[in-house]
Design goal:
8 helices, single chain, mainly alpha, aspartic-type endopeptidase activity
């Protein structure tokens, strides 16, 4: 993978995060989401999977940044469990529509959404679905990866602050 496929979009998202007026104490969260999100999205587009080597370390990374940002950790934990549970049920009901990597990634992303607000959880879910739909329309020959929608929606919602 050429380094520019990750470096350029990450730099753009970092600049947009800084320009969005995110409170300074919360800014590390959208920066982390941009970094992880670009890397995971490139991998999901190219290989149609989200590897455990990136999804599982997202749990302590996101947890540490939430703690450092002073987020409501109880609400973040509840949000992570709820979002994970929703995606797990979808995966069990229709495994072809959502992979295990998407389910694993939904836990830390739900924690971020929960830290933003309770309303951020359904907003993030709908926005993730809309992004995935847009990707599927742009790439009709391939089944759409859901990872880019998940991380893109969470990054956008995280700009509202935590």
């Amino acid at each position: 993978m050429h380094w520019a496929w990750c470096a350029v979009p990450t730099a753009v998202l970092w600049a947009l995060s800084a320009a969005a007026g995110v409170p300074p104490r919360w800014l590390p969260m959208p920066l982390l989401l941009a970094l992880l999100g670009v890397l995971l999205s490139v991998i999901d587009f190219r290989h149609r999977r989200l590897p455990d080597s990136l999804t599982l370390p997202a749990y302590p990374l996101v947890g540490g940044v939430l703690w450092a940002c002073g987020a409501d950790l109880g609400r973040a934990l509840a949000g992570g469990l709820a979002y994970f549970g929703l995606h797990w049920v979808v995966h069990l009901t229709s495994p072809a529509s959502m992979g295990g990597g998407d389910v694993k990634l939904s836990g830390p992303l739900g924690a971020v959404l929960g830290a933003v607000s309770w309303t951020a959880l359904p907003v993030g879910a709908v926005l993730a679905s809309a992004i995935t739909l847009a990707v599927s329309l742009a790439r009709p020959r391939d089944g759409p990866p859901h990872g880019p929608g998940l991380v893109g929606a969470t990054w956008l919602v995280s700009l509202a602050g935590g």
